[in-house]
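Dear Dr. H.,

I hope your travels went smoothly. While you were away I took the liberty of generating a structure for the chain from your last submission, since the lab meeting agenda had it listed for discussion. I wanted you to have the full record in hand beforehand rather than looking at slides cold. The sequence, exactly as received, is reproduced here:
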Amino acid sequence: MSGVVLMSGVVQGSGVGPVLFLIFNDDLAKVLQRYGINARLFADDVKVYLEMGHEDVARLQIALDVTTTWANK
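The corresponding predicted structure, in token form, is as follows:
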């Protein structure tokens, strides 16, 4: 069996995994908060949510764009 070199991620089942997750993803929550968009971090999941009205469609698009930009960095 040959090894695979991973370019990103956190070792699964590690003691530092949850801490590394928070370090990596806390920045995303802060960036979204600047736009008035809430994010919740739990285990290996990020949930983004906001109250929606007709005028909030643009805010949802901003959340998606900001998340995409953050992930690409």
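Two observations you may find useful: The chain has a mean pLDDT of 77. Residues 43 and 54 are 32 Å apart (CA to CA).

With kind regards,
E. W.
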